[in-house]
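Trying the structure run again after the queue cleared.
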Amino acid sequence: MISRMRIGIDLGGTKIELIALEDAGAECLRLRRPTPAGDYAATLALMGDMVAQAERETGVQATVGIGTPGAIAENSGRMQNCNSTCLNGKLLQQDMEAMLCREVRLANDANCFALSEAVDGAGKEAEIVFGVILGTGVGAGIVVQGSPLAGANGISGEWGHNPLPGPRDDERPGPPCYCGRHGCVEAWLSGPAMAADHMRLNGGALTAKDIAERAAAGDMACGATLARYTERLARALAGVINILDPQMIVLGGGLSHITSLYADVPLLWREHVFSDTVTTRLLPPVHGDSSGVRGAAWLWENQAWESQ
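Done. Tokens:
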């Protein structure tokens, strides 16, 4: 018999995933549905239906947390910077609260990833966790003493849209980024960016996964591409360490499966970190692709039950 339950929702561009966690974090239910493309009202209704189904099946009314692309603009309460553009300008949190007749907590999906790994994952018990998403895009979330950091403008952790630190002459001005600038971390370190870097120097259309697999098998050109990527990732993360100084950096997204990164990047970032010793650890996620949706559920802390 479940007495208390948290629901987390990961609102993605192609799918909506819901997870229900018992108080100690054990999963008791999971649902997945395709996201209604470009349709805000249908997306809202589907999330409401999924919550209702989860509560029917478990017999428990739950707290609800949502991980989304983008962030809430502090001055208006409206969504901004969402790659699922139908969310931009919408009062998503308020609309969900009106639909469910209860308080809803909402955070950027990268912050949810970082929170999941900070609560009961690779960064458990660390004071500061920097959670990185290396996938189709590049994002990050920051958790300090168990709480996600949103920031004054709701953009804390937007690491991907800073310039790559210490660019060499052949890295200027850098590849164009969708944000309108050149040389952003995302334009160098996303999966498509690795593929584009390989094509510029070698020709041939390979995915980041292909490049990593061929590099591991001894392909010289792919090995060189992976080495460039690794060195750039080390520079980019060294900049984070110099500012935030986290105990743990946890990698998520498709490129987090490249196992060589966890040994090679910490060796390379030493040159760029302003400290004689670097104790920050670079780790893969314990919860893998489930970290985002689990982190949305963990937006509610244990104390929150008292108000339910």
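The chain has two domains: 5-112+290-307, 125-285. Worth checking whether this holds up in the mutant runs.
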